[in-house]
Amino acid sequence: MVPTAVDTDLSPAVTSTKVSTKNENAEAFTTNELPNGQYLLDRNLNKNYPVVVRGDGNYLFLEDGRRIFDTSSGAAVSCLGHNEKRVIEQMNKQLDTGVPYIPSLFYRHRLVDQLCEHMIRDTDHKMKKVYLTGSGSEAMEATIKLARQYFWESNKETKRVNFIARQSSYHGNTIGALGISGHAGRRAPYLPFLMDNVEHISDCNPYRQRLVGESNEHFVERKAAELEAKFQELGPDTVIGFIMEPIVGAAMGCVPYVPGYMKAMREVCHRHGALFILDEVMCGMGRTGTLHAWQAEDVVPDLQTVGKGLGGGYQPIAAVYISEKVVNTVTNGSGQFIHGQTYQAMPVQASAALAVQTLKRDLDLVTNVRMQGKYLEKLLKEKLADHPNVGDIRGLGLFWGLEFVKDKENKIPFGSSQAIAQKIHDLAISEPHNIVLYPGTGCAGGVSGDHVMICPAYIVQSDDIEVIANTTASVVRSFFENLDA
Ligand SMILES: Cc1ncc(COP(=O)(O)O)c(C=O)c1O
């Protein structure tokens, strides 16, 4: 029988968040040895980024001696915090076998089997199979191809060539995933290369789109009618599927679905035989208070991606969940997914992800996400709802966004050249605040609109939440007090 849990001591103590201020490795990383500007991985080539030397629990320690409260879990990744020994132990155990990698073309590995079994069990077997990749963008690329293959298997001349996605959305930076994405700023330089068989309908953003006095039901009806109209415009039998993030992360700053929205959108897709596809790379794996965002309303997708919170930053790993109908069609057709990459389903990736998922379950961390998330919502709203430049505070679980506006009454955003969100992040990560407010733009129609995201690790306790809310409030107040009009 295949074992179902990582063979380790998963005692219910969460990694201590007590930290030492000693930088044990600081000597090893001097600025002489690590000169700035050598690495293209720095996104902004003109910027001096702080140098990290170690991590522990909620904290990252910098070469300059400062301690940063990682209130964004990096890019909503480090869901168990840093230096979780029980994950590292499992990775080391796997490395000690001499097999960090095996080609998934030729072999299976028990840890990979166990991880997939664990993941399927956590959907209550509502999804049938898991396809592992190395990043969220790769998972989206695989999803785009698998969705097309689903129709191609039963009809090689299928007319299904179109995807429908949403305007303010982000699904990854590779050409296919960016083609699906609606993020105008990130698409702009690459437009000539992006797929032209993707149509974008409006996203689901009650702050900016709800009519005065409009009920959720009516709002959802309008959205479903818009999707239906897009199917009719394209020809319903040309559409492969509709792709959406249940809670929009980077593109909008944690805007959740309106109750009933996912179900209504799925109904439209299924009425026309198309696939309903969820991108949970950022909002999934417990981040919003259920393991999968769709579980909150039991709206099972046909295909679903996950990423960041799967490996929690301990290994690069993401995945596509595949429903029974897609599995059966491919199985009864060619019998293979016409895809594959070198680095996927590695035993060392599986060891990390399995340990992260097992800890989440055994320590009941998703319940903690719900509980601490409610407290964070309460405090953020108490402290910032009245601020003249905070237009909206929205989110779910430990996934919260603040949208900033120049004119609150008319919801007018700041000019994009003012780089408000980036500057708020720069202030937050500096002394004396030392927190991370993950900046983003485009929430007010694609290019303008500034937001920051707050998405701490699932191990936070109520005193951590108080620090996050108080510090965020003082960063925001201090920033706008000192902003030249
Ligand atoms: C919703 C969503 N989809 C896909 C991706 C792409 O994932 P990755 O950066 O791992 O390629 C991201 C990354 O932020 C994301 O937020």
UniProtKB/TrEMBL annotation:
<dbReference type="InterPro" id="IPR005814">
    <property type="entry name" value="Aminotrans_3"/>
</dbReference>
<dbReference type="InterPro" id="IPR015421">
    <property type="entry name" value="PyrdxlP-dep_Trfase_major"/>
</dbReference>
<dbReference type="InterPro" id="IPR015422">
    <property type="entry name" value="PyrdxlP-dep_Trfase_small"/>
</dbReference>
<keyword id="KW-0663">Pyridoxal phosphate</keyword>
<dbReference type="InterPro" id="IPR015424">
    <property type="entry name" value="PyrdxlP-dep_Trfase"/>
</dbReference>
<dbReference type="GO" id="GO:0005829">
    <property type="term" value="C:cytosol"/>
</dbReference>
<dbReference type="GO" id="GO:0030170">
    <property type="term" value="F:pyridoxal phosphate binding"/>
</dbReference>
<comment type="similarity">
    <text>Belongs to the class-III pyridoxal-phosphate-dependent aminotransferase family.</text>
</comment>
<dbReference type="Pfam" id="PF00202">
    <property type="entry name" value="Aminotran_3"/>
</dbReference>
<protein>
    <submittedName>
        <fullName>PLP-dependent transferase-5</fullName>
    </submittedName>
</protein>
<dbReference type="GO" id="GO:0008483">
    <property type="term" value="F:transaminase activity"/>
</dbReference>
<keyword id="KW-0808">Transferase</keyword>
